[in-house]
Design brief:
The longest helix has 31 residues. With 384 residues, the chain is an alpha+beta fold. It is built from 11 helices and 12 strands.
Length: 384
């Protein structure tokens, strides 16, 4: 009687493996599929194909960037954590997926889901040792099932998002520190206005407005960053449409961009009740107002308005200028700007905040006869 094969114990996923000769048979069978290896080698993501025991039977050529100490052939039979050098892959005799740490691993969870017949997307944070160096790796993984000769395999895709994670951490530290510094400066200027001589008070007032504008610009960037990462929190409260427009006008009363230009609320704007997020809505209208003020000549006027729009409320920002056709076609693109490199977040930010967070729409009309009119249409009650 043949001796029974001992399968290592596990604290999470199955530890069972197939022998290396079976792995190589599966690898050769996959390599013979028409076009498949060539297609997988042409994508930007790192691609693994895993057998039912989570062992690698194919690795795209670019995987060498993640595993510089092993060739693609040397990865055959390993599991992803073992290939990537995860420090927990050897903590249990069963290898990758079997330690108690693996129960919280996004990669293992996605692979198990795919082998059960379901596609899954997960983030995975691992500490690994590669070429005698320990480093942190943040990856986004997507695993989807496919069937070959009656068996379910996993197509396992990996994106390195470490640089994005590092950038987010640095952004949070930077925003926190710069807001604290600007806030302290604003407080200091507030104290000085009671102590400076009268002949310096006009200059102090200019400094106060500049500091307030700086804080507003920093907060605008924080809001946009959070909005793009789906982290912005909506706080819906009762609002009055005309009072909100008047508060936007007040925000720009001493703004440099409004110098020698007029900003008014149309007399026929009604006071309508709505429930929305005042901070986000002011940010949207403020972006559109700033763009409008920058687009007009000294002495011209930007007019804000509001009106019923079916079951919702429409806010408008009008200026007498006209937007060239080639600009209209790119107006809401993230990095497009007529003001130079590094600009172009005004209309993009307005559209993102309105559609993703206020559940409304943004549009515009621009003709030589009527000028340019931006329209923000919102529901009367925002359900956050």
């Amino acid at each position: 009687m043949a001796a029974a094969t001992t399968v290592p114990l596990t604290d999470f996923a199955s530890a069972e493996r197939v022998p290396v000769n079976i792995v190589h048979q599966q690898a050769r069978a996959f390599d013979t599929q028409p076009l498949t290896p060539k297609l997988l080698n042409s994508v930007l993501n790192y691609i693994f194909v895993l057998n039912p025991q989570r062992q690698i039977i194919f690795a795209s050529q670019n995987v060498r960037q993640l595993t510089p100490d092993r060739s693609c052939d040397q990865l055959l039979g390993l599991r992803p954590g073992e290939a990537l050098g995860c420090i927990h892959a050897c903590e249990h005799t069963g290898g990758c997926g079997t330690s108690r740490f693996c129960s919280e691993c996004g990669a293992v969870k996605a692979i198990l889901a795919s082998l059960a017949g379901h596609s899954d997307l997960q983030e995975c944070r691992l500490t690994r040792t590669i070429q005698c160096k320990t480093e942190a790796l943040d990856i986004l993984v997507y695993a989807s099932p496919f069937t070959h000769e009656g068996q379910t395999f996993s197509l396992f895709s990996v994106s390195d998002i470490s640089h994005q994670k590092r950038r987010r951490v640095l952004e949070r530290i930077f925003f926190h520190d710069v807001v604290n510094t600007a806030g302290a400066l604003e407080g200091l200027l507030g104290l000085l206005k009671f102590q400076v001589p009268d002949n310096l008070k006009p200059e102090l007032k200019v400094a106060e407005h500049a500091c307030h504008d700086l804080l507003d610009q920093i907060q605008a960037q924080i809001d946009l960053t959070m909005a793009e990462s789906n982290e912005l929190v909506v706080a819906a409260t009762p609002l009055n449409s005309k009072m909100l427009l008047l508060s936007v006008v007040d925000l720009f009363r001493n703004h440099e961009v409004a110098k020698e230009r007029n900003l008014v609320v149309a007399d026929n704007s009604p006071s309508m009740a709505l429930i929305s997020d005042a901070t986000i809505l002011k940010r949207v209208l403020g972006n559109l107002v700033k763009n409008a003020l920058e687009a007009i000549r000294p002495g011209e006027t930007v007019t804000l308005g509001c009106a019923p729009a079916g079951d919702g409320v429409q806010f408008t920002v009008h200026n007498p200028g006209v937007i060239p056709q080639k600009v209209q076609l790119q107006l809401f693109n993230r990095s497009f700007s007529t003001k130079g490199n590094g600009r172009g977040l005004g209309t993009y930010g307005a559209k993102l905040l309105t559609e993703s967070y206020l559940k409304g729409t943004v549009g515009f009309e621009s003709t030589p006869e009527q000028g340019t009119l931006f329209q923000v249409v919102l529901p009367k009650q925002l359900i956050s």
